Amino acid sequence: MTMDAVTLPDLSGRTAVVTGANSGLGIETTRMLVGMGARVVMAVRDVDKGGRAAATVQGETEVRRLDLADLASVRAFAGEWEGDLHLLINNAGVMAIPESRTEDGFETQFGTNHLGHFALTNLLLEHVTGRVVTVSSSMHRMAQGIDFDNVDLVGRYTPYRAYCQSKLANLLFTLELQRRLVDAGSSVLATAAHPGYAATNLQSHSGSRFQNGLLALGNKVFAQSATAGALPTIYAATQDVPGAAYAGPKNMGRGAPALAGRSEAAWDSVAAHRLWTLSEQLTGVTFPLKPQTD
Q: Could you tell me which of 37, 14, 100, 30 has the C-alpha nearest to residue 63?
């Protein structure tokens, strides 16, 4: 199997988890991984929808419930895991929704897009043998930094401010996770990807019929397909890239996958460490691997 002359590996006998796998980028990522021979566990909030999506995939899949906006659900999913996990694809997310809270009281976009995946990754990490790939967004560039004193953006909330902060958090999480993996002497890689402008249902939950209509029009006129949008995730999951690599379409919004640039804020190792510490405090989940000793 090839992707614009990029050779993809045979993943027969390997297991992957894809969060948010019942639609959009998630189902396309699932199809590609299954096409490489992987067994894919589709981690979804609605198992009925997940089952219908799985029925469209020719290959080995399993649907399991996971609600990233509920840390009890995250713990239950991870607690039931047995055996090796080659790839953890942190794909699920919400975008530019009206202000709301998760089951644990966090702002929903930060809580779902970052904290849920932070907890899931650390709870599963001792099983991971290959890579952790976290899906961010080119819109992370619109965030100047993490509002550490007010990550829930109380009194400052706008849908896109919250979304951009959560996507910056995804990249800072990847940066700090890779640093910790290296310190622990682990061969696991942490990488990230963004889909460019891809047509999915992610843009249809703004709470505004007018805005949803504009976004739907944009999807039809400007966006690339969800299949094309999933290619950078596959690139970050399978190609020979360094730790903390970030993949995206060559032309930012569309095109073949390649290594992508990121904002200066997304390279801030001090902020990445601070975000990790805060995330541990908020979720009660810590990094499970021990640092190497000389």
A: 30
Residue 235 bears catalytic tag: no
Closest CA to 234 of 63, 57, 74, 4: 4
Among residues 157, 160, 163, 197, the one annotated as catalytic is 163
Domain ranges of the chain: 7-282
Q: Give backbone dihedrals phi and psi of 247, rounded to 5 degrees, phi first.
A: -110, 150
In this structure, which topology does domain 7-282 adopt according to CATH?
Answer: Rossmann fold (3.40.50)
Helix (H, G, I), strand (E, B) or coil at 190: strand
- Calculate ∠ Cα 239-188-119, nearest 5°: 115
Query: What's the pTM?
Result: 0.91
Q: What is the pLDDT of residues 117-150, one digit of tens each?
A: 999 999 999 999 999 999 999 999 999 999 999 9
Rg (CA), the chain: 18
